[in-house]
Design goal:
The chain is an alpha+beta fold. The protein has helices at about 10-15, 65-80, 85-100, 105-115, 125-140, 140-145, 155-165, 170-190, 220-230, 235-245, 250-255, 285-300, 320-330, 340-350, 355-360, 370-375, 385-400; strands at about 1-5, 25-30, 30-35, 40-50, 55-60, 260, 265-270, 280-285. It has three domains: about 1-85, Integrase, DNA-binding domain (Double Stranded RNA Binding Domain); about 105-205, DNA polymerase, domain 1 (Orthogonal Bundle); about 215-400, hpI Integrase, Chain A, CATH 1.10.443. It is built from 17 helices and eight strands. The strands form two sheets. Strands 1-2-3-4-5 form a five-stranded mixed sheet. A hairpin with a 5-residue loop joins strand 3 (about 30-35) and strand 4. Helix 5 (about 125-140) crosses helix 8 and helix 7 (about 155-165) packs antiparallel against helix 8 (about 170-190). It is elongated. It comes from Kushneria phosphatilytica. Belongs to the 'phage' integrase family. It holds the Pfam family Phage_int_M. Keywords: DNA integration, DNA recombination, DNA-binding.
Length: about 400
């Protein structure tokens, strides 16, 4: 029900009684007083946004906001509209600025935490970029502009469950970890006293255990033959051969630099800052790998990276290069670059080599107490170097590399 007047008076407002339906008293120029059946009275302003769409905003409750104050607010809002500014968006921006000024808003604290972490993360990785991107995508739109001490555990549960619902379990794990660490930083810096992320694990789904797709031992000849026949990129072909002969992680190979290799000593020393376990890793090079490297050096030896990017030689090739090659060879769903490590580890185990040597070759941490105290590299000539040479000979016997 609407009662339209050119302008309201205090007498009219006081005389208006609640009805069975909401009553609207108009003061003109979009200002209305809404009277609910319960008797509550609230000011509303109808207006047209700069984009042409109709909208309505609250100007407070009566009598806390008087008729004169409501009219003054209407004037202020219409002044903003005359400047092409949406008053609702302007109000939100003012709120964000107040929160930012307090240094207590979640996104501000996330930026502080991120700035402290960037120098600690390994050079040559995209962790800084990827972590911030994940927060921008999955967290900030939902709770980014809230004060950190006002975000409830159920809100965090909703953030994480949204990722579960679309199968982004690994992304969820990372986001959970990032946000938990942001709260830890906030506690240390005195902005909050409680970390709601620490107790959520029990309410979340576990990530289904999966393994990187890889061919069986019986399918190795097919894989080696396909790599040898790959003619789309000599650079990528060499990379796939080296993955097969060294069992390093694809990212470690992509970012490999020529100054890390001693071809005379047949060893590749990967620095700690580029390793997942944050400790240096020595990779023995069988003669088949040395042959690949010597041929590759004729092509890219003048660059820093073994595999320089096509458009920017100061960066390595795309992280999709190796995987795309396997797809083009017909191994989609059957074998991925990281799966090569599973293939090599299985082969070495079937050849009878000690598990400690294999784990050292893969740069894996040993389980339990061994992982704490044992850091043996097993680089004596009769250990890993001999093991990888035997593997190289085995691969070469399938098809001449």
């Amino acid at each position: 029900m609407s009662l339209y007047h050119m302008s309201l008076t205090i007498r009219q407002i006081k005389a208006s009684k609640p009805g069975k339906k909401e009553i609207t008293l108009s003061d003109g120029l979009g200002l209305e007083l809404r009277i609910s059946p319960s008797g509550r009275k609230g000011w509303r302003l109808r207006y047209t946004r700069p984009n042409g769409k109709r909208n309505m905003m609250s100007l407070g409750s009566y009598p806390e906001v008087t008729l004169a104050e409501a009219r003054e607010k209407r004037t202020d809002m219409r002044r903003l509209l005359a400047q092409g500014i949406d008053p609702v968006e302007h109000r939100k921006e003012e709120k964000r600025e107040r929160l930012y000024a307090s240094g207590n808003i979640f996104q501000v604290l996330a930026k502080e935490w991120h700035d402290t972490m960037v120098p600690r993360w390994k050079a040559g990785t995209k962790r800084a970029e990827q972590s911030w991107s994940a927060l921008e995508t999955h967290v900030f739109p939902m709770v980014g502009d809230q004060a950190i001490d006002t975000i409830k555990p159920l809100e965090w549960l909703d953030v994480l469950r949204r990722m579960e619902a679309v199968g982004k379990f690994e992304q969820k794990r990372k986001v959970h970890s990032f946000c938990r660490d942001i709260y830890r930083y906030a506690i240390i810096t005195g902005r909050v006293n409680y970390n709601p992320l620490t107790d959520l694990a029990g309410a979340l789904q576990r990530q289904p255990r999966t393994h990187f797709s890889h061919v069986s031992q019986a399918e190795i000849p097919e894989l080696i033959h396909a790599i040898n026949q790959y003619d789309k990129s000599k650079l990528v072909q060499t990379g796939l051969k080296l993955l097969t002969l060294t069992a390093v992680r694809p990212g470690e190979l992509r970012w490999a630099r020529w100054d890390e290799f001693d071809l005379e000593a047949a060893i590749w020393k990967i620095p700690a800052e580029r390793m997942k376990m944050a400790r240096p890793h020595s990779v023995p090079l069988p003669c088949q790998a040395l042959q690949c490297l010597r041929e590759l050096r004729k092509v890219t030896g003048q660059y820093r990276f073994l595999f320089p990017g096509r458009n920017d030689s100061t960066k390595p090739i795309s992280d999709a290069s190796f995987g795309m090659a396997f797809k083009r060879m017909g191994f989609e769903g059957r074998h991925v670059p990281h799966g090569t490590r599973h293939m090599v580890a299985t082969g070495l185990k079937e050849m009878g080599y000690p598990g400690e040597w294999i784990e050292a070759q893969l740069s894996h941490k040993l389980p339990g107490i061994q992982g704490v105290y044992t850091h043996a590299e097993h680089m004596a000539p009769e250990q890993r170097p001999a093991m990888m040479q035997a593997w190289g000979d085995y691969i070469a016997s399938q098809l001449n590399l």
